[in-house]
Design a protein that fits this description.
Layout lengths: L16 E5 L6 E5 L9 E2 L6 E2 L3 E2 L1 H34 L1
């Protein structure tokens, strides 16, 4: 079975900030987008908790799920169509 990857970019504002959700207080806050892909500590601006990870916002989770589902369905449909064509060629 072949693997496939999906890359989905977070929305970054004009100041280079990304909106994320604190897993401790469940409030949204902005953090520099450079901290997301690095091992830098992220501190929630609401509860001041040092975070080892963050949650995507509900809006981003919904968007990521929609895009991932669309791409996965497209991939599965393509693989199925290829298999059907291969079977049809073998039956001729």
């Amino acid at each position: 079975m072949n693997d496939f990857e999906i890359e989905i970019a977070l929305d970054i504002d004009e100041e280079g900030m990304a909106l994320v959700e604190c897993p401790e207080c469940i409030k949204e806050f902005k953090t520099p987008s450079t901290t997301i892909n690095n091992d830098e500590t992220i501190i929630c601006s609401h509860c001041k908790q040092e975070l080892l990870y963050f949650n995507f916002t509900k809006k981003d989770r919904d968007r990521i799920q929609r895009i991932a589902t669309e791409q996965a369905m497209g991939y599965a449909t393509d693989r199925l169509n290829r298999t059907i064509k291969k079977i049809n060629r073998q039956l001729k």
